């Protein structure tokens, strides 16, 4: 297996101006006729090399003449054609079998419907082509099928339709915008259709069509409304309008990821389309809106301007994630969005950086591109875009974006092209900043603080900020980064200070050397520096603040995010204390501090709810090394138990003061439900409050509260949990998306018979290994979130997951490669864990026929 390197990029040897596809659908014998107009680029006599994967080639002709055997060679992965012509029409016919395609890449059947997934390199599983994002072509596609398949869709606008014969019909589509083949899509099936329309600012009318499984129409309404909000927002904030007459979204049940931004024809995992009050939680609604927006925003950042090569993936993904985050913040609330995204960074991205898969947001080396749709490329990529936004300000950022579109509309470009467009909009020199694209790893910012007394009862405070990025598996040398550090200096009364040198500007200081120093004069001997406020850069902070200082931040920081963050640090501290001495009791001072915090925020349920969340086990792992899982889980559990006992009265008050009202999906109602359910989960740890959990389960009129009760029941007696789960299953047996929640709750239970439980789940009539949503909800939830059982010291959890992955890999390598992640992240754990994890990784590596997806991650983690 050969890795590709970013440094080896060569421009394409040929261009393909137009692609004409004629596809006759059949489960095992789909026929593809592809007619390409090809032009040689420049002066060379290299053959035309096309990618192909799992295809059976039938015929090849150039300008109407069939090629003889010595004019081409064909292998498992390539078709090489020798010709001296500089311009010619190439016609290829081949056959594929969508029904046998369980990897869900290329053309496959989802339920009864045909659909495609081409990004990153799936088009080569449909026909021979230069399957790379810098070959842009205008597509005309004719879809032919039996009339039992009534709806035939492809990119662009429908231009013709009719009958082929009595039983067969066709629809012809034309997409005027040149695009790379990864944006090609075809869908054919029988759906329920929701229609709507949207008029752009400049007066263009766009038909909106949403295709869902029969009977699910009412669950598509919210997605369609979200789409219109996204279209409006992109016009208002970036001046970007939609550019075709029709925008289609299709929801399918079998899908490897969230959704796909194919030009004019998005294909979605039904999980990110279908939502109603009864079956979807507030989080589900949120996710639907943000994924709908994300794919829509790709129309400009991704489709109109695409990537030159796959190493540039963050060009479209980091930028589009940033755009969807800004949209969600505008639609819902900035604070809860920021907290949500920072949690993802700390829980998952930091873990990736600390693992053998560590890579810069623009990777240097790739074996299987699908492995690089990572939290680093996406979420850290978005944090890097956010820093541009912070440094340039909203107007500067907008100028940079405008320039980016002005320069590159219709092109396939690089991250450097983006940086250079941003550079044109600012006086700052972005040269050092651009290291964020090439350097991997999580920088650590350390804070030192010295206090001396000066004249007139004043004190001089000297602060030193330093940065260093620990070596990562892919890169041993690290250089200083250009880091915008949001900073607040406060005293116990809440007075704020700035530095004598005026290095702090608008609450921001730029740290670009290994370290920097500034001084503050104050009457107080006791100042608290709040460093990296609002997570102004994707970094860790080591700031040796006492619990007093953390509570001061909670009381006085202007930024609610920083108040939340101080609370998280405080909890982390307490848990560390319990790890060191398991029987210790957290001091009353701390409980009193938290009680005051609760009192202070009692009217701000949004912040209060978030502040009452204890950091997840996975987040705690990122500030620890040599982790003994049982000890850390025990400490976290002990803290949660003490928390519930010590704050029982306050928690009950919060719960009881939140008034119940009929369900509505508004920010205010969401905040209330969120806060109430966070509190309920704490109280559920006290046996006397089990009845509250049951009462909520019985009376809930929406999925958020039902699921909140079930999650809380995970802390109740197993009799209660089992009985609520059984009722839930009976109610929701017919709805696989809801059942996924039930699967996940079972799989994350810390119980001794967990493997028997999971085995049973896998035999559930609604479970199928071929369906990624089911596999993620059972096996994925177990591996990612059942830390105690996954990391059992006898190795049973690792072995269980490995046994499963060995089977799954043969069916769907992409999903297998996702779920193997926790196993490859052994670095932070104690040696006893590491040995067991590596043993299972070794079994994977030795497996005959292992996919290159899993091979890449496993071999790296054992290297
Ligand atoms: N661009 C797709 C992801 C494709 C993943 C390929 N394995 C969805 C998105 O990011 O919008
Ligand atoms: Zn995307």
Walk me through the structure:
Among the domains are: 15-190, Immunoglobulin-like; 191-304, 2-Layer Sandwich (Zincin-like), CATH 3.30.2010; 308-438, Neutral Protease Domain 2 (Neutral Protease, domain 2), CATH 1.10.390; 733-863, Peptidase M1, alanyl aminopeptidase, C-terminal domain (Zincin-like fold), CATH 1.25.50.10. Helices cover 40% and strands 22% of the residues. It is built from 27 helices and 32 strands. An 8-stranded mixed beta sheet has the order 6-5-9-3-2-12-15-14, with no helix packed on it. It has a 5-stranded mixed beta sheet with strand order 17-18-19-21-20, with helices on one face. Strands 10-11-16-13 form a 4-stranded antiparallel beta sheet, with no helix packed on it. A hairpin with a 5-residue loop joins strand 25 and strand 26. Helix 5 packs across helix 6 (415-423). The two termini are 15 Å apart. Bound molecules: (3S)-3,7-diaminoheptanoic acid and zinc ion (ZN). Residues 119-120, 257, 259-261, 294-295, 298, 317, 370, 373 line the site of (3S)-3,7-diaminoheptanoic acid.
Furnish the topology, listing elements before pairings.
Blueprint: E1 4-5, E2 14-24, E3 30-40, E4 48-51, E5 56-62, E6 65-66, E7 72-74, E8 78-81, E9 87-96, E10 106-110, E11 113-117, E12 137-146, E13 151-154, E14 157-165, E15 168-179, E16 186-189, E17 192-199, E18 205-212, H1 221-238, E19 246-252, E20 259-260, E21 265-269, H2 282-297, E22 306-307, H3 313-331, H4 334-353, E23 365-366, H5 375-408, E24 412-413, H6 415-423, H7 435-438, E25 444-453, E26 459-468, E27 483-491, E28 496-497, E29 508-511, E30 515-522, E31 527-531, E32 540-542, H8 547-556, H9 560-580, H10 588-600, H11 605-611, H12 617-621, H13 629-646, H14 648-657, H15 667-683, H16 690-699, H17 703-713, H18 718-732, H19 736-747, H20 754-762, H21 772-785, H22 787-790, H23 796-811, H24 813-819, H25 821-824, H26 831-845, H27 852-862
Parallel strand pairs: 2-12, 18-19, 19-21, 22-24, 25-32
Antiparallel strand pairs: 1-23, 2-3, 3-9, 4-8, 5-6, 5-9, 7-8, 10-11, 11-16, 12-15, 13-16, 14-15, 17-18, 20-21, 25-26, 26-30, 27-28, 27-29, 27-31
The structure holds (3S)-3,7-diaminoheptanoic acid (B3K) and zinc ion.
(3S)-3,7-diaminoheptanoic acid (B3K) is lined by residues 119-120, 257, 259-261, 294-295, 298, 317, 370, 373.
């Amino acid at each position: 297996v050969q890795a590709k390197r970013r440094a080896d990029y060569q421009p394409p040897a040929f261009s393909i101006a137009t692609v004409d596809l004629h596809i006759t659908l059949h489960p095992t014998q789909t026929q593809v006729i592809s007619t390409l107009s090809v032009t040689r680029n420049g002066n060379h006599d290299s053959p035309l090399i096309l990618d192909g994967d799992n295809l059976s080639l039938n015929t090849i002709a150039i300008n109407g003449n069939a090629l003889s055997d010595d004019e081409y060679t064909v292998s498992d992965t390539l078709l090489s054609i020798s010709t001296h012509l500089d311009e010619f029409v190439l016609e290829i016919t081949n056959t594929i079998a969508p029904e046998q395609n369980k990897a869900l890449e290329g053309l496959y059947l989802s339920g009864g419907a045909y659909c495609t997934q081409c990004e990153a390199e799936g088009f080569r599983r449909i026909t021979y082509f230069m399957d790379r994002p810098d070959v842009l072509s205008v597509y005309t596609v004719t879809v032919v099928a039996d009339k039992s398949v009534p709806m035939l869709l492809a990119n662009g606008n429908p231009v013709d339709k009719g009958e082929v014969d009595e039983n067969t019909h066709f629809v012809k589509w034309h997409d005027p915008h040149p695009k790379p083949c990864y944006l090609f899509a075809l869908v054919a099936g029988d759906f329920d259709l929701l229609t709507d329309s949207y008029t752009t600012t400049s007066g263009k009318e766009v038909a909106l069509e949403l295709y869902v499984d029969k009977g699910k129409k009412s669950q598509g309404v919210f997605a369609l409304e979200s789409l219109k909000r996204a279209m409006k927002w992109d016009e208002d904030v970036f001046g970007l309008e939609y550019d075709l007459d029709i925008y289609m979204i299709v929801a399918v049940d079998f899908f490897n990821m969230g959704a796909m931004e194919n030009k004019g024809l998005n294909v979605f995992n039904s999980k990110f389309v279908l939502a109603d009050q009864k079956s979807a939680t507030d989080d589900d609604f949120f996710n639907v809106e943000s994924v709908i927006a994300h794919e829509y925003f790709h129309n400009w950042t991704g489709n109109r301007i695409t990537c030159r090569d796959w190493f540039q993936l963050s060009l479209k993904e980091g930028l589009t994630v940033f755009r969807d985050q800004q949209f969600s913040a505008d639609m819902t609330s900035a604070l809860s969005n920021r907290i949500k995204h920072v949690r993802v960074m700390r829980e998952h991205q930091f873990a990736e950086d600390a693992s053998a898969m560590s890579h810069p947001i623009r990777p240097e080396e790739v074996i299987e591109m699908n492995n690089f749709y990572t939290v680093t490329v996406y979420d850290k990529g978005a944090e890097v875009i956010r820093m541009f936004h912070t440094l340039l300000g909203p107007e500067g950022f907008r100028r940079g974006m405008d320039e980016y579109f002005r320069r590159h509309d219709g092109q396939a470009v690089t991250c450097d092209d983006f940086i250079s467009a941003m550079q044109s909009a600012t006086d700052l020199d972005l040269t050092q900043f651009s290291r964020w694209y090439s350097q991997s790893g999580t920088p650590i910012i350390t804070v030192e603080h010295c206090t001396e007394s000066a004249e007139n009862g004043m004190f001089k405070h000297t602060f030193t900020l330093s940065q260093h990025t620990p070596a990562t598996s892919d890169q041993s040398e690290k250089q200083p980064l250009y880091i915008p550090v949001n900073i607040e200096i406060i005293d116990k009364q809440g007075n704020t200070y700035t530095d004598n040198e005026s290095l702090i500007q608008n609450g921001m200081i730029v740290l670009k050397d290994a370290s920097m120093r500034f001084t503050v004069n104050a009457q107080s001997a006791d100042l608290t520096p709040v460093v990296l406020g609002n997570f102004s850069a994707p970094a860790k902070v080591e700031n040796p603040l006492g619990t007093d200082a953390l509570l001061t931040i909670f009381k006085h920081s202007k930024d609610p995010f920083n108040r939340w963050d101080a609370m998280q640090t405080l909890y982390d501290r307490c848990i560390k204390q319990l790890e060191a001495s398991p029987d210790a009791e957290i001091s009353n001072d701390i409980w009193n501090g938290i009680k005051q915090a609760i009192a202070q925020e009692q009217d701000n349920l949004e912040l209060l709810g978030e502040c009452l969340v204890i950091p997840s086990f996975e987040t705690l792992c990122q500030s620890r090394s040599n982790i003994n899982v049982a000890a850390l889980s025990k400490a976290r559990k002990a803290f949660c138990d003490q928390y519930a006992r010590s704050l029982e009265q306050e928690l009950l008050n919060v719960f009881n003061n939140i008034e119940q009202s009929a369900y509505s999906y508004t920010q205010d109602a969401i905040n209330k439900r969120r806060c109430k359910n966070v509190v309920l989960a704490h109280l559920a740890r006290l046996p006397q409050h089990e009845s509250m959990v049951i009462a909520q389960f019985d009376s809930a009129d929406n999925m958020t509260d039902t699921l909140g009760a079930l999650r809380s029941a995970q802390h109740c007696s197993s009799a209660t949990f089992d009985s609520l789960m059984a009722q839930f299953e009976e109610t929701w047996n017919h709805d696989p998306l809801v059942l996924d929640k039930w699967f996940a709750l079972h799989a994350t239970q810390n119980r001794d018979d967990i493997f028997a439980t999971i085995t049973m789940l896998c035999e559930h009539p609604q479970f199928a290994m071929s369906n990624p949503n089911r596999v993620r909800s059972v096996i994925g939830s177990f591996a990612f979130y059942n830390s105690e059982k996954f990391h059992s010291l006898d190795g049973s959890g690792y072995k269980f997951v490995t046994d499963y992955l060995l089977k799954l890999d043969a069916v769907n390598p992409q999903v297998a490669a996702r779920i193997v992640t926790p196993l490859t992240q052994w670095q932070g754990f104690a040696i006893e864990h590491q040995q067991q994890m590596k043993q299972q990784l070794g079994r994977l590596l030795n497996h005959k026929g292992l996919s290159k997806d899993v091979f890449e991650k496993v071999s790296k983690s054992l290297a």
